[in-house]
Amino acid sequence: MSIVNNDFLILFGVLLAVVAFLYSSVGHGGASGYLALMAIFAFPVSVMKPSALLLNLFVSGISFFFYYKKDFFKPKLFYPFAITPVPAAFIGGMIPLENSFYKIVLGIVLILAALRLFGFFNSKETDSTKMNIPLAMGIGFGIGLLSGMLGIGGGVILSPIILLLGWAMLKETAAISSLFILVNSIAGLSGYFMGDKTFPTESFYLVPIAVFGGILGAYYGSGYFSNKVLKCVLATVILLASVKLIV
Length: 247
Fold this sequence. Notes:
Blueprint: H1 9-25, H2 31-40, H3 45-69, H4 75-78, H5 80-83, H6 85-94, H7 99-118, H8 133-150, H9 155-165, H10 170-194, H11 207-221, H12 228-246
Helix pairs in contact: 1-2, 1-11, 2-3, 2-12, 3-10, 3-11, 6-8, 6-10, 7-12, 8-10, 9-10
């Protein structure tokens, strides 16, 4: 099934904008949400991964721009996550996954993403502790590899880890995650293309929709906007998609 021939394209577009809005508001690109929607609307696996990376690239870039303007970005907190994840994501993008295995792994990742949105991995903001550079680089490599393989930016995994370890405050974490997602998405797409895979050009039709939602979400999220209830709804959708993938 192609994207433009989807009978529920309008509904998909509306939900896509909502996902981009919600994710960008917390400094994420939204790949896990896009993948969940594509799973629910029965998009083929060959379309899901590259499309999610493409949309992720645009929305995470927008999110980073807004958080950067608010002076939440701290370069010294980001560079350990920029050294190892980028080559790892590039390698992951070249690794082809058998469809059933891909769906199971993606389903598990989406469950983690949903739990994150429900608040299970949230921690209270405390004074930041000194970052363990070797540990940060190791974590970054693992997330980068997984990101490239699955077509996600990895922010939904990185954010709770940074907060739980106390390496940054919430807004700083959002800024770090948005740039982390951006560079990982670029690396993942590069690896995908290096693997001689055909890119679904129809995915570009979805970019303006995601950009619209991303701009609004990043604008409010970088300020004081709260969307706790909507995030719980989104988490429910992701959980439904993960069950659909795994079962």
